[in-house]
Design goal:
91 residues, mainly beta, 5 strands, 10% helix
């Protein structure tokens, strides 16, 4: 049974993004960019989406590059958790 739990944790979605807002306590707003190609015109388009992520220690600040992992619903909007800070923002 523990084997199943470990496998399900390995299948969690992982994304990288930039912290846009750190105004809330233990919550960060992360903007994740992705690049797509237009079907008809073959033009490269840049799209972004915002995710609310839980940051227990309040370590990340605005401008940091972070990695987020999917988790159980923590609130009405939070479905992600900050797993690690990849790169600190330059001041």
């Amino acid at each position: 049974m523990t084997e199943n739990t470990e496998n399900s944790r390995n299948k969690r979605k992982v994304m990288r993004g930039v912290v846009v807002s750190d105004k809330m306590t233990k919550t960060r707003v992360i903007s994740v960019d992705h690049v797509i190609s237009h079907n008809v015109y073959s033009k490269t388009l840049r799209r972004n989406r915002k995710f609310y992520a839980h940051d227990e220690a309040n370590e990340s600040k605005a401008g940091d590059l972070v990695e987020i992992v999917s988790t159980r619903p923590l609130s009405a909007l939070k479905r992600w958790r900050v797993s690690r800070i990849v790169e600190k923002a330059s001041k």
